[in-house]
Amino acid sequence: MVRFATSLSKESIVDVEGVVSLPKETLKATTQQVEVQVRKIYCINRAIPTLPINLEDAARSEAEFEKAEQAGEKLVRVGQDTRLNYRAIDLRTPANQAIFRIQCQVENKFREFLLSKDFVGIHTPKLISGSSEGGAAVFKLLYNGQPACLAQSPQLYKQMAICGGYERVFEVGPVFRAENSNTHRHLCEFVGLDAEMEIKEHYFEVCDIIDGLFVSIFKHLTENCKKELETINRQYPFEPLQYLEKTLKLTYEEGIQMLKEAGTEIEPMGDLNTEAEKKLGRLVKEKYGTDFFILYRYPLAVRPFYTMPCYDNPAYTNSFDVFIRGEEIISGAQRIHTPELLAKRATECGIDVSTISAYIESFSYGAPPHGGFGVGLERVVMLFCALNNIRKTSMFPRDPQRLVP
Ligand code: ATP
Ligand code: AMO
């Protein structure tokens, strides 16, 4: 039996029959102290003799590699591409096991919180006839011979659900972006957590939902996922997220002013680039002691066509982005709810209104003021745990170079 057992390759699946023994002197043994005196062993599935990834190497932290190197030991670092090529093995590392458990908790809390606030879960089509966000970043395909595309977001349909009399809706589903963005935070397919709701007085009602939702997600992770967070921290050390009980809101202009005072000039009424967003994140942390904040009242020129212009100054919009550690996790806004203005803004943004006529018409049958937001699930987990690449928080990532496994 010993010879048979020693012939088994690492990661083979076995059934073992034996006697469990605990050390005499301890009442509470750790797993490592428990022994199984094996009587019978069956091999259910034998792994190949040499795996393409050594799991011990894949689970080491950078600090362990450096320490080993200083001691003259030679260890093999497992690169991101190799990990993703052999994801079924890579997923077995303790950190990866923890990451996708955390992801599941975020998604679960998102549903639970919104259900408790009377939102209804919906499912909107992913095979659609035109672009949802404008722009060219759509995957095109043929749908029974007709040109079609994969939905860039549930945007138009979640608004149509509001037109359909649902006061508050949410959706968890895939989002497709054909952008050629080879960055640490862009995927071609990600999980969108979307919500849309009627607004009674002001679009800050949407921000209040985000505030309650994310404070409850952060608290839940901190209090109930300690083991998972420690496991991730062992391989990828990170500072715990700092957030306020009431989420900080700053205007876009206040953000620009903070950047200006710190020596960064932004093109007037322009978007913040990645570097500026990160810098603003650092400045906000220094001044207000939070890694999580909302920036609102963006210029019209940098927001999608369906965004409601500000009543007091239409060069700005009733819109916002939300940041964790200086990177965007959420975009949201009040939407235009009159068909005339919607068609005008779509045309101004270069969108052929005939491709979205059913959407625009939905607002001629009586549509309440409403707003909503979209969250990227992978980004939330990546930034909560300060991981350096979104591919670590997507189980089988799709990026411009990767369609397999
Ligand atoms: P959205 O979800 O609104 O697209 P995002 O986080 O994907 O938000 P973008 O609006 O696409 O952000 O881009 C914001 C910033 O991200 C850009 O100003 C740019 O600095 C950076 N960025 C986007 N794509 C790339 C890229 N391929 N390479 C480098 N930086 C990029
Ligand atoms: P937006 O395009 O900003 O807004 O997307 C919403 C959120 O989705 C995430 N995200 C991404 N995650 C991974 N890879 C990508 N390529 C990627 N692009 C975006 C981000 C972002 O904040 N319809 C609006 C939302 C709304 O207003 O309700 C929209 O799609 O976390």
TrEMBL record:
Catalytic reaction(s) noted: tRNA(Asp) + L-aspartate + ATP = L-aspartyl-tRNA(Asp) + AMP + diphosphate
Pfam families recorded: tRNA-synt_2 (PF00152)
PANTHER family: ASPARTATE--TRNA LIGASE, CYTOPLASMIC, ASPARTYL-TRNA SYNTHETASE
PROSITE patterns according to UniProt: AA_TRNA_LIGASE_II
Name of the protein described by the UniProt record: aspartate--tRNA ligase
Record-level Gene Ontology MF annotations: aspartate-tRNA ligase activity; ATP binding; RNA binding
GO cellular component terms, A-Z: aminoacyl-tRNA synthetase multienzyme complex; cytosol
